[in-house]
Amino acid sequence: MIPTGTGDAPCHHGEILQGVFLDDDGSRCAGLVTLPMAGPGSHAEFVRRPATAPGALTAVPADRTKAVRAAALAVAECAERTGQPPCGGELRLTGDIPVGLGMGSSTSDVIATVRAVADSYGLRLPPDTVARLAVHAELACDPLMLDGRPVLFAQREGRVLEVIGPEMPPLVVVGCALGGGAPVDTLSLPVRDASEADVRAFERLRTLLRRAVATADARLLGEVATASARRGQQTLGHPEFEALTGIARRAGGVGVQIAHSGAVAGVLFDPAAPGLRRRVRSCLRALDAHGIPATRTFTTFTTTQESLHGPAHRGGDRPSGPDTSRRPARLPAL
User: Fold this and answer.
1) According to the model, what pLDDT value does residue 20 have?
2) Which of 37, 175, 205, 285 has its CA 20 to 30 A from that of 295?
3) Phi-psi group of 26: left, alpha or beta (phi > 0 → left; psi -120 to 50 → alpha; rest → beta)
4) Is 199 helix (H, G, I), strand (E, B) or coil?
């Protein structure tokens, strides 16, 4: 019987907070807190080919080079753990995460791949091992291998700097795509060194986010997300940013969040606020009036009817193409 394994991984909707923080030793460390999103994800199938060379790895689609690197690393890890010789195999990836919008599509591919390889060996690798392999495969990764709790995650090191709390405050998010939804090549973005003032500002936002999570304060979380997004504009420079914050304010939202390495964004609402549906409809009309395409409205908590304005999501396979230049895909709308 040919050893075959499967693996899955979710996506996220960009970041609530991203910057440079101090770790437990007082050293500077790039970190982020992502906004969880249920629905789209990556699925991987890995067929192990014993007695073949470890480098004999093929993938469908063939352009998923980061996932192929992850497969090779995972094979070496699992072979060592089981005492078997490393070998090649066939990787097949499917999923419905739009590429280049800052939703963690490449990390989702990588994590699903690592899980599929481990499954083909009859293993389930711990999250810290998955994170280590993911960072080696793509230089930086999102915390999609964890359990969904809000964490401050060092994306370039694959380690948790802090568990912020048990869960995010309940939010309703009206998703949209800036820049017409064009993919962002994160490797081409300018690198700006953080000053002492920057680090102090990020640490203040970290403290406020900790308080927002502890007290389930959606409004305070929205303030943190908006402040982080505003600082991110020093690099991203979205021309729609001021319009987006104005829309959030006029529609009665608590703030905005923007992927710090992509074009996906969201207007945040407190689900306990009165007139929620009216507020969401007002937001959608304003986005349309400003030429900002709305994508998907979702919640950060479990409901019996996640959508506030339409039919259920139906996903399809992502288009193929190079890792950083695949054509843009619209986020499936609810």
Assistant:
1) 96
2) 205
3) left
4) helix
